[in-house]
Automatic annotation (TrEMBL):
This is DoxX family protein. Keywords: Cell membrane, Membrane, Transmembrane, Transmembrane helix. InterPro entries: DoxX (IPR032808), DoxX-like_oxidoreductase (IPR051907). Belongs to the DoxX family. The chain crosses the membrane at residues 30-50, 57-76, 88-111. It is a multi-pass membrane protein.
Length: 117
């Protein structure tokens, strides 16, 4: 889910930057690039199991930050709170899965579990 999301941000760079700016975050173009790098880079690393623990930690941090800054349902109008709370808790659930990978490592077919040398 992170990789396609990252590529969608590449194809809509200006829109993503404007959305980040609308949340009052500093340096929106830089944050857009960092978001793309994390979503695509760490997403692909997690997908193949290359430095999977680190990739999972990076994505977990990203998911928590996204929940806090973009799905802060308590700051939305009442009509939008339900939808935003679903996204907020979805991000927390994803974070739990990512922390599981960080704690226990990748699966048996991952790059990290095979000696490539």
């Amino acid at each position: 889910m992170f990789v396609p999301s990252g590529f969608s941000k590449v194809s809509n760079f200006d829109g993503t930057t404007a959305y980040i700016a609308s949340k009052g975050l500093p340096l929106p173009p830089v944050l857009t690039v960092l978001t793309i790098v994390v979503e695509i880079g760490a997403g692909l690393a997690l997908l193949v199991g290359l430095k999977a623990r680190w990739a999972a930690l990076a994505l977990a941090a990203f998911a928590v930050l996204a929940a806090l800054f973009f799905h802060n349902f308590w700051a939305f109008p009442a009509a939008e709170q339900a939808a935003q709370s679903i996204s907020f808790y979805k991000n927390l659930a994803i974070t739990g899965g990512l922390l599981f990978v960080a704690a226990f490592g990748p699966g048996p077919i991952s790059v990290d579990r095979h000696d490539l040398g």
